[in-house]
Specification:
Helix content is about 90%, strand content about 0%. The protein is built from three helices and no strands. The longest helix is centred in the C-terminal third of the chain and has 52 residues. The radius of gyration is 25 Å and the shape is elongated.
Length: about 110
Amino acid sequence: MRSGSNWSVAAFGGIVYGFAIVILIAVALTIASVITGTVLAGYRDFGVAKALGCTPWQVMGLLVAQVGVPAGIGALLGLPLGILGGAYSWANRRFSWACRRLRRSTRR
C-alpha cells in the first residue's frame, strides 16, 4: 500500500461504519413496525383466545411464537451462510494478495 493512501482508507472506513449504523437503525425500526403491525392485526384474535380461557402468558407465548419462529429459522439459515460468505471473502482476499505478490516477484 502506498504511504499516502492511509487517510483515504480511514475516511472510507468511517463512511462504511456510518452507513452500517444507519442500516442497523433502519432494520430495527422495520422490525419494530412489523411486530407492532402483528400485535394490532391480532388484537381481536388475542381477545378471542383470552375469552376461550387462555391466560395472558399463553397469549403472549402465541405472539412470541409468531415472531420468534421465523426469526429463529432466519438466524439458523443466515448464520452458516454468513460464515461461509465471510470465509469465501477472506480466502478470496488472501488469494488475490498472493497472486499480486507473485506477479511482482516474477517481473524482476
